[in-house]
TrEMBL record:
<keyword id="KW-0274">FAD</keyword>
<dbReference type="Pfam" id="PF02770">
    <property type="entry name" value="Acyl-CoA_dh_M"/>
</dbReference>
<keyword id="KW-0560">Oxidoreductase</keyword>
<keyword id="KW-0809">Transit peptide</keyword>
<comment type="similarity">
    <text>Belongs to the acyl-CoA dehydrogenase family.</text>
</comment>
<dbReference type="GO" id="GO:0004361">
    <property type="term" value="F:glutaryl-CoA dehydrogenase activity"/>
</dbReference>
<dbReference type="InterPro" id="IPR009075">
    <property type="entry name" value="AcylCo_DH/oxidase_C"/>
</dbReference>
<dbReference type="GO" id="GO:0033539">
    <property type="term" value="P:fatty acid beta-oxidation using acyl-CoA dehydrogenase"/>
</dbReference>
<dbReference type="InterPro" id="IPR052033">
    <property type="entry name" value="Glutaryl-CoA_DH_mitochondrial"/>
</dbReference>
<dbReference type="GO" id="GO:0046949">
    <property type="term" value="P:fatty-acyl-CoA biosynthetic process"/>
</dbReference>
<dbReference type="InterPro" id="IPR037069">
    <property type="entry name" value="AcylCoA_DH/ox_N_sf"/>
</dbReference>
<feature type="domain" description="Acyl-CoA oxidase/dehydrogenase middle">
    <location>
        <begin position="140"/>
        <end position="230"/>
    </location>
</feature>
<dbReference type="InterPro" id="IPR009100">
    <property type="entry name" value="AcylCoA_DH/oxidase_NM_dom_sf"/>
</dbReference>
<dbReference type="GO" id="GO:0000062">
    <property type="term" value="F:fatty-acyl-CoA binding"/>
</dbReference>
<keyword id="KW-0285">Flavoprotein</keyword>
<protein>
    <submittedName>
        <fullName>Acyl-CoA dehydrogenase family protein</fullName>
    </submittedName>
</protein>
<dbReference type="InterPro" id="IPR013786">
    <property type="entry name" value="AcylCoA_DH/ox_N"/>
</dbReference>
Length: 396
């Protein structure tokens, strides 16, 4: 015989009760990152986006470091050693403030730091990882080139031997953190295949001009990397990997963060539209009382909820060591696409106000246009999932 119990009251932004699936530690991470963003990001980010410049960006990155967010899912060398799910939750909260803010944290931890942590020598790890974990040193990751985005095997950046040294020549494009970075992890063709190199950005011949005139990810530094006869010692090469497996495994780490992060932009836009619909009066009642507006809100919440369940499932698999790259592609493909659709629908609820930076929606929508493309385009992830389903490669 069962006793009748009163179910908990429904929360409009958690209709499925997903909070019940989170541990207390995971909730604590969420609370800490949310509070940091409320204090240090949210009051300023619309202005940063409008000006295309983040004030005191080094100070902000140190704030992230002080909370343990930089390389938080890595073990040792000053890193926090948190779970993959906790890292994902942090990405969601960061991107609820702005995709550019989440991107700078992801590039630092999941690309630059992960590459050194996974494939670097002990000397490289000890030199760079503690300083990067604290935010004292900023890293960037150079893979994409002007003519080699989805096909990195055809990169033109070259590294050649000159005595005991390496000499690098080439260009990388669309590099987050590049202009402010202290160290760059750069991938180049060699006679022995693709290799990674750890380049202090003060090295002669290295430059990182900032890319301007962006209309997306404006609260983020995006750069070109230029290597003009950059001379490096042999110890600058990442010793533990050769070929595309190196950079692609780093990209998989970053893509995992995007699976969660895109939902932050979606949640912020959904919250904004729900609040707006409850206060905007038309025909003597709030527009949230109209059927068509409710249909939009329900559809948005439904897709957000499904995306969050998918992200949480993938996080649990990653923590269990069972997550495959194809599953990350599935998550990135779905969650970014649905998040962008949520932002576009939220914009319609806000009407003309939807294009104003007084509200976060147009900023999130614009940012997600970049997130849709980077770390693998829709086309690439579709073909990855298609190959997993059919066993046939359709890339060529």
């Amino acid at each position: 015989m069962s006793m009748d119990t009163t179910p908990p009251r429904l929360q409009p932004m958690d209709l499925a009760g997903i909070d019940d699936l989170l541990t207390e530690d995971e909730k604590a991470v969420r609370s800490s990152v949310r509070q940091l963003c409320v204090e240090h990001v949210d009051p300023y980010v619309a202005d940063w986006f409008e000006r295309g410049q983040v004030d005191d960006i080094r100070g902000l990155i140190k704030q992230f470091g002080s909370l343990g967010l930089l390389g938080m899912h890595l073990e040792g060398y000053g890193c926090a050693g948190m779970s993959a799910t906790e890292y994902g939750i942090a990405c969601l909260e960061l991107e609820a403030s702005d995709s550019g803010i989440r991107s700078m944290v992801s590039v630092q931890g999941s690309l630059a730091m992960f590459a050194i942590w996974k494939f670097g020598s002990e000397e490289q790890k000890n030199e760079w990882l503690p300083a990067m974990a604290s935010g004292e040193a900023i890293g960037c990751f150079g893979l994409t080139e002007p003519d080699a985005g989805s096909d990195p095997a055809n990169m033109r950046t070259r590294a050649r031997r000159d005595g005991s040294d390496w000499v690098l020549d080439g260009r990388k494009m669309w590099i987050t953190n590049g202009t402010i970075a202290d160290v760059a992890v750069v991938w180049a063709q060699t006679e022995d295949g693709i290799r990674g190199f750890v380049i202090p950005t003060a090295t002669s011949g290295f430059s990182a001009p900032e890319i301007h005139h962006k209309q997306s990810l404006r609260a983020s530094v995006t750069s070109e990397l230029v290597m003009d006869s950059v001379r490096l010692p042999d110890s600058a090469m990442l010793p533990e990997v050769r070929g595309l497996r190196g950079p692609l495994s780093c990209l998989n780490e970053a893509r995992y963060g995007i699976v969660w992060g895109a939902l932050g932009a979606a949640r912020s836009s959904l919250e904004a539209s729900l609040d707006y619909a409850g206060t905007r009066i038309a025909f003597d009642k709030p527009i949230s009382a109209f059927q068509l507006t409710q249909a939009k809100l329900v559809d948005m919440n439904l897709e957000y909820t499904k995306g969050l369940l998918l992200a949480l499932h993938l996080g649990r698999r990653k923590d269990a060591g069972a997550l495959r790259p194809e599953q990350v592609s599935l998550g990135k493909l779905n969650n970014v696409r649905e998040a962008l659709d949520i932002c576009r629908t939220a914009r319609t609820i806000l009407g003309a106000n939807g294009i104003s930076l007084e509200y976060p929606v147009i900023r999130h929508m614009s940012n997600l246009e970049s997130v849709l493309t980077y770390e693998g385009t829709v086309e690439m992830h579709t073909l990855i999932v298609g190959q997993a389903m059919t066993g046939h490669s359709a890339f060529r």
